[in-house]
Amino acid sequence: MAEKILLVDDDNSILDGYRRSLSREFPMETAVGGQQALQMVAESGPYAVVVSDMRMPGMDGIQLLSKIKALSPDTIRVMLTGNADTDTAVNAINEGSIFRFLNKPCSKEVMAKTLTAALVQYRLVNAEKQLLEQTLSGSMQVLTEVLSLVNPAAFSRAERARRYIHHIVTAMNLGNPWQYEVAAMMSQLGCVTLAPETVQAVFNDEQLSPTEQTQYDSHPQVAYDLLSKIPRLEPIAWMIKHQNQPLPMPGPGDFETPDMRRGAGILRLILAYEKLIHKGVSRNEAAHTLALQNKNFSPEFFHALVELDPNAEEGEIRKCRIELLTPGMIVQQEVRTNEGVLLISKGQEVTPPLILKLKNFHARHLITADVTISMPTTTLAFVKGAS
Amino acid sequence: MSEKILFVDDEPAVLEGYRRLLHKDFSVDTALGAQDGLAAIAAAQEDAYAVIVSDMRMPEMDGVQFLSRVRAISADSVRIALTGYADIQTASNAVNEGSIFRFLIKPCEKQVLARALTAGLVQHGLVVAEKELLEKTLRGSVKVLTDVLSLVNPAAFSRGIRLGKYVQHIVKKLQLKTPWQFEVAGMMSQLGCVTLDTETIEAVYAGKKLSAEEQARYDTHASVAGELLSNIPRLEAVARMIAKQHSAPSSSPAGIDLKQDPVALGAQILKVAIAYDQLLSGGCSHGESLNRLLSRPQEFARLVADALGDLEPEIQGMEARKLNLSDLECDMVLQEDVRTGSGMLLVAKGTRVSHALLARLRNFLRREPISRTVLVHVPSQRMRAEPEIPCSANEAVARVSLGQR
């Protein structure tokens, strides 16, 4: 997502001049006059920065920028003015309606410096939202994709759970959806302490020995210990800790909020759902089984769960040559090396690193040339947390 | 979060006026003149002022000079100037140069002043929140996940942990802005190795010479990781540093100072850190490795290599000992690889023991008793008692877990 800048002047040649000198450094668009500017803001906004000339026929710079403030309050507004009317400038800046005043003619250097400062300010104003929803979520997604390639048995669950949760929280229209997705992505981190045989047994749904069961049961606590000290992730750590157990009754003085309780519940049910699907239970049946077992849980959740298109995951199942794989496909078989090492588990989403990994292993003659995949027809598998 | 405001003026009566006017709504300190102001800022240390308001005309050091000093020593403080009508142009230039946030014209009504202070506090809140999100939330999350990766596959990913540590040291030494970018780049630089087959990874880990074909395949890992991260907002620079980790030139092509180009500098830092790590794991001592880097200035920037000079080996002040695997404790540093019976690398040489690693080892040992002794470095009591130094990735894991106990 590039942060765009809009330059407004009634003189096309001035716009051309700025475009020539600055468009290499800044993603820049131009509008001739206020009307066109407003139209562009409405149609292709939001812009991070709008720079407007003060004197324009029809609508002057002040009018334009105050309209833009109403349309798109986070946009940073800069004014270019020929006659330096200092009082106007001082007041507009101090009232916060305009970020900077520039005197015409304005050199390329001053303009570039101002645009940089304006972009910094824009990022600052939008930091929280963008950092949590895009930067943090996006980084976690890349890292969990990598983890699921390194150890599919333990970590591919997390990636699948994220896809389901993305759909659910969108359908339920919950606030701060990123936190539920990040919780799903990080929910299996504690499995890093388990021996591969234990992970494998869980993955194959085999009976665990009592010792193994104890070890396995402690994995949410391990993840909690890893995450709970990171600022802003405390609620997520709490959800992860309670992923396998029904919640304690709420009491006075509890640290957790209703949001966190709901998040923990969603995570627990989605992981149970993922487990049923992995066993081969149909989506519809899995959703109904869980609804019956959890009658007190939010009906909206089960509504959303049932709506997960039963055919979405299946699509058409077919063989595909490795070099023809494309991101968004779902792998419908286990891919193992000649020696039996699990490379990809069934149900993993095809990602660019997954394709490369398969190509490399194939080049070394460690796996066959085809993989069984499906191409989901709905958007479910395509959605990325960051988008 | 600090909400403190500092007023600086050379007239005691004016300061007293501000205090009376504002103390009900704001937490106000005052300083008589620029020198006192700088002293107050220095004394505040961690509990920095959120907003600093200075008069423009003061003897010795004027407001513009004072506020640009403030910018250097207390960068997150929001700066406001109070100015007489005659100085408007100066103040207005200072706004455009970014050294001040707002300027107010004297005499200034209470309402106008209060509004500007509130806007300043909001601005400060934004700056602090952004910093916390990047330096703590994002960096902390990336650290946990890369730590987990290195536990799962030490051959491929333990290098990332070590690189993170070297980069942290270099960045601190060079006093670079936005250190999180470089550190995150270090930690994530080896992610592309996930696409490589085990044999290639083991060969690289063991420092073996790769065939031309293998080398070509291996070299793609940088661009793979760059590609993976390239669509994440705010990580554009990180992605580019990582993509260029093998090819970064030691000087900027246009002859500009490397420090002016964060991406080129970041890539060069990665390149130096990787070469240093390769030399160390090949058996070179710290000094030897450093000399080799410094002897190839066309490849490795002296500026960056020099910054590694005083990196203390992690085992500084530790005692070497042979211990049974089951007797390992947190913060010990392994001096040799630990493998399972089937030859899988369980812990890489040079790893600092964390709680998560201990738990993992315990679970492995229960299934497959690996009865052997390993060479480790054990922290002496003195080391443990010392206040904590900015720590290695694994140590952070250990500390996080410790906090829970």
Account of the 3D structure:
The complex is a heterodimer of chains A (387) and B (405). Chain A is an alpha/beta fold and 387 residues long. Chain A has three domains: 5-125, Response regulator (Rossmann fold); 128-308, Orthogonal Bundle (Hypothetical protein af1432), CATH 1.10.3210.10; 313-387, Molybdopterin biosynthesis moea protein, domain 2, CATH 3.90.105. Helices cover 52% and strands 11% of the residues of chain A. Chain A has a five-stranded parallel β-sheet with strand order 2-1-3-4-5, with helices on both faces. Chain A has a three-stranded antiparallel β-sheet with strand order 6-10-7, with no helix packed on it. In chain A, strand 3 (49-53), helix 3 (61-71) and strand 4 (76-81) form a beta-alpha-beta unit. In chain A, helix 6 runs antiparallel to helix 7 (152-172), helix 7 (152-172) packs across helix 15 (299-307) and helix 8 packs across helix 12. The longest helix of chain A has 24 residues, at 127-150. Chain B has 405 residues and is an alpha/beta fold. Chain B folds into three domains: 4-128, Response regulator (Rossmann fold); 153-311, Hypothetical protein af1432 (Orthogonal Bundle); 314-405, no CATH class. Chain B is 53% helix and 12% strand. Chain B contains 16 helices and ten strands. Chain B has a five-stranded parallel β-sheet with strand order 2-1-3-4-5, sandwiched between helices. A three-stranded antiparallel β-sheet of chain B has the order 6-10-7. In chain B, helix 3 links the parallel strand 3 and strand 4 (78-83). In chain B, helix 2 packs parallel to helix 3 (63-73) and helix 6 runs antiparallel to helix 7 (179-188). The model of chain B is unreliable at 382-405 (pLDDT under 50). At the A-B interface, helix 4, strand 5, helix 5, helix 6 and helix 11 of A face helix 4, strand 5, helix 5, helix 8 and helix 9 of B.
